[in-house]
Amino acid sequence: MKIFVFNRIFYKIWIPFTAILVTTIGLFIFYYPSNQKAVLSNYKENEFKELAKTVALGIEISLNSEDYSGVKKTIDFVSTKQDFDYCVVIVEDSVLTSFPSNINIQKIQNKDTLNNIYSTSFFETNSLKGRVEICASKSKIEETINQLNRPFFWASIFILIIGIVVFYLFALKISKPINQLIKVTDALKDGKYDQKEAPIFSKDEIGQLSDSIFELKDNLAQEKQINLELTEGLENLVFQKTEQLQIASSRLISAQTIAKIGYFDYLPNQQLFKISETASQIIGSKVLSMSEDECKTFICHDFIEPFYQMIGKTLEEGQSGQLDMKIKRKTDSTERWLSVITERNISPTGEITSTGTIQDITDRKKSDEEIKRLSLVATHTSNCVIITDQHKTIRWVNDSFSKLTGYSREEIIGQKPSIFQFEKTDKNTIAEINATLALGRPISGIQILNKGKFGNEYWLDLNIVPIFDEDQITGFIAVETDVTEKRKVQEEQQLLLGLTQSQNQRLQNFAYIVSHNLRSHSGNIKALMDMIFHDKPELEDYQLAKMMRHSSDNLFETIDHLAEVALLINNKEKHLEKIGLREVVQKAIRSVSVSELNHHVTINNLIPDHWEVLAVPAYLDSIVLNLLTNAIKYRSDKRPANITFSAVKSKNFMTLLVQDNGLGIDLERHRKKLFGMYKTFHKHPDSRGIGLFMTKNQIEAMGGFIDVESKVDEGSIFYVNFKHESS
Amino acid sequence: MKAADIQICLIDDDPIYTFTTQIRFKNAGFEKKLLEFQNGENAFYELLPILQSQPSSINVIFLDINMPIWDGWDFLDELQKMNIDHLPPIIMVSSSNNPDDKERSSHYPMVVAFEEKPLLPERALEILQNC
């Protein structure tokens, strides 16, 4: 608390009172002693005079009655009065007696009236005449007076101090509530309603005022609190709304930027377009406002009228408009397609403007055109054709698609192919398709089970090709074939195949068993027959026995062949070796030459050296030998036999040509039976009809095939196609 | 080795084949009488002591595949378990030309040939001379 701030109420109360008190008491103290002194001096002088008189009288009496002790007593009486310097009784200019006793005559004669008061009283007795003189110093009198006044001073000072203190307390008591009030009002003035102040409990008027003010203050504080809260709430609300607005606006801007949607306002009063930055970029301009005439400079001629018609309609009728129009960009002079949408906008001031968005749709237009072109091709195919964008959203389907799935073009465009999938669709296949397409690779030959609009399930053979535009996938074309029926047939075939295979297996086993058992028995019969003829050579002349032996030989041979055939059919997986074709033919020629050369047969081997085929050695030997012996066997009697072996190489096969000029075969009649079992076409003694059947099967077992050209009585050419190494 | 010195053991259930074989080999100069068994089991238990004590007393075994009780494979399996040294060569003789059988026979080290019936003496000699 600052004590000496005198403009405070406390001092304003206390100081005047104190000043008045101090002045009053000061003046009193100042004036009172001087008056008092004068009165007291007079009184003292009078007292001294009376004393002198009394002493003189007493001495006179004593001397008259010659009572000298009375003199002494008088002096002693004087001595009780201590407040004088001396008292002397002078008789005849000499000192009779004095008090104090050492007073001499010089001192009495040299009177100092300035500092002392003198009082003289005369006496006269019968005998003596004298005087009594009393002297008192003025300072001594003053001292006496002061002594008299001192309690009064102290009392005054005491009263002064008491007064000051009382006034102090009084001022304090008055000023405290006032101060409080001032503080409160100050606080109220400054709006600090919630400041804490000690309440005043005294129930005087100030106290009541104070209470009222406090109440007011409390109310105000509450009000302020409410106001604050309200304000805060309001501020928060404003802040939130502002933030939301900002977010929305920035979103809108970024959305527009991302979607490349430009924005414009047309002000009909000023005939002015105000355009957003994105719009400015889209049209290839650098300004954000342009006049109608400027606008006409970049809109392609055919679209100027429709564009202004649309704006006019929007302004007049409030109808929103949409227009796809072509412009020529100012910056790079490229032609772009824009989609323009307009809306009427009425401002709070009642001004009617047209607001619109523009979007660059050149790419979409392009792809639309592309799809149109593609769809021209795809419309009439019986396959389903689906064109999607890069996100696999369907953009076009052909009529066959609608026929198969039940979805019309309108309802399926915008959907994704996942709409066709259901719980029976193989998830792995879908994953495989997606992975392949993600790599930008085409898909072909994948089959998938889909479901149509009406729940019809169908199998599709998928061929999907990504469409690229400068390394970017812009879409996919899927050509789908309905293979439901095919799969059904395949499944049936598979079933049949399984059945056939198991039957075949059983037949195979049967063939083994039969051939094994029959061979044992026929072998035994043949052996026994041989032994019988060995033991009894005379049986040679017995026709029946001879016929019996011939039959048993034939039986054995036939069963032998059958066993061979059974073996051949079984051997699907033969190990193929590289074999020089020329050497094999040479070997065959050598093996027949001894027995056949005398029949005027010429055999030519024109196969080049080192031409190798992939074959089973035993089969190849058997094939070549069989064809050679056939050619010899069925030679013509009309001309010398000429047999030529040659070979040609193609990509997949090496073909052995065996050409003869023999009897020939009537292919029109016999082609189908030519390579069958037990078919002979010549009445030749040796023909058993197993050879070509074996040959055909052996060649096919080695992955090749045989063909024949022939004319009756001119000759035949057999073409035997073998695999070779580069195939 | 001369045909006259060769001791043949024939394991086959077909009596006619056994008979014809006997005569055929006899006529071809094989003088020793054939040791004959009608099935694999018989042959195994009869032959085992001979093979363990004097393996050289038998020069070749003709083994049929399809037989009652123990077939040819059973015989081979049991024989292989015995770990006998100096086993005589075995020629498998079957009227079956099943390539699976031929393939299977090649897994037995003592089998030197797989022949179709009838096995002629000349062929048998040829095989024996090559092994």
What does this structure look like?
The complex is a heterodimer of chains A (727) and B (131). Chain A is an alpha+beta fold and 727 residues long. Chain A has five domains: 154 residues, 2-Layer Sandwich (Beta-Lactamase); 102 residues, PAS domain (Beta-Lactamase); 118 residues, 2-Layer Sandwich (Beta-Lactamase); 73 residues, no CATH class; 150 residues, Heat Shock Protein 90. Chain A is 52% helix and 22% strand. Chain A is built from 18 helices and 22 strands. In chain A, strands 7-6-5-10-9-8 form a six-stranded antiparallel beta sheet, sandwiched between helices. In chain A, helix 4 runs parallel beside helix 5 and helix 16 packs antiparallel against helix 18. The longest helix of chain A is centred in the first third of the chain and has 56 residues. Chain B has 131 residues and is an alpha/beta fold. Chain B has one domain: Rossmann fold (3-Layer(aba) Sandwich), CATH 3.40.50. Chain B contains five helices and five strands, in the order E-H-E-H-E-H-E-H-E-H. Chain B has a five-stranded parallel beta sheet with strand order 2-1-3-4-5. In chain B, helix 2 packs parallel to helix 3.
Briefly summarize what is shown.
The complex is a heterodimer of chains A (727) and B (131). Chain A has 727 residues and is of the alpha+beta class.
